[in-house]
Amino acid sequence: MSASLTTSLLDFRQPARAGASLAALDWLPGAGLAEGRMLRDQPEHGYAVAEAELSAFAGTVPPLGKHVFLLVQAGAVTVGSETVEAGETIVLPRGFAGAWDNAAGTRLVVMSYVGEAPGEGAAPAPVRPDLTSPLEPCGGPSAALLTTTAPRCAKRMSFEDSTEQFEIGVWGSTPYARKPNAFGHDELMFLLEGAVTITDPDGIASTFRAGEGFLIPRGTPCAWENTVPVKKVFVCFSEA
């Protein structure tokens, strides 16, 4: 099954596999791709997700033709004046240009979306999700899906493309469990606090803890359970 059609949970803890040039990294000229795997590739939507291990590279990123979300899994990347270390994330908006430096063995999860071109003015600056400010109360899962009492949920948006198809933020919840429900969008999740167990369509349960991440493709009917409060960075892509 191609990466664009996968409807199973994708676990970032699995090692990258040897691979060729990945579309999600085509914006970084000169980057040496040691190993990698394509997780999602939907060129018709200008959207891609990949996991990659890089060779040492120092150079300049020209103005980006897409929004790029980076999750550093190992090593560190310096983008402009920002150094992003393992377990940290950053958003490079479309139009960003600047210096880039990474050591050999740096591992990334990259999620990119073309979006709309920025307006005239100063070039967009990198955006780090705000991990410390209080989250704002938000709606939770449908009551029809819950198998526990309703949780208290909250979130804070960090980045939203003008198309409203690409959103990045921080979300938190008190404990709850829900029945399997098909996701209406692709969602990358990186846990900051707590733990969650995701049960996939085959009945395989995977527990993720702080510092671990995964991707749930659109259409995947996963069950969810967190027995302790949880907080995550999320990146959502929705088709038009």
Automatic annotation (TrEMBL):
Stretches assigned to the (S)-ureidoglycine aminohydrolase cupin domain: 163-234
InterPro entries tied to this protein: RmlC-like_jellyroll, RmlC_Cupin_sf, UGlyAH_Cupin_dom
SUPFAM superfamilies, alphabetized: RmlC-like cupins (SSF51182)
Matching Pfam families: Cupin_3 (PF05899)
PANTHER family in the record: CYTOPLASMIC PROTEIN (PTHR40943:SF1), CYTOPLASMIC PROTEIN-RELATED (PTHR40943)
Protein name: (S)-ureidoglycine aminohydrolase cupin domain-containing protein
Organism for this UniProt entry: Teichococcus deserti
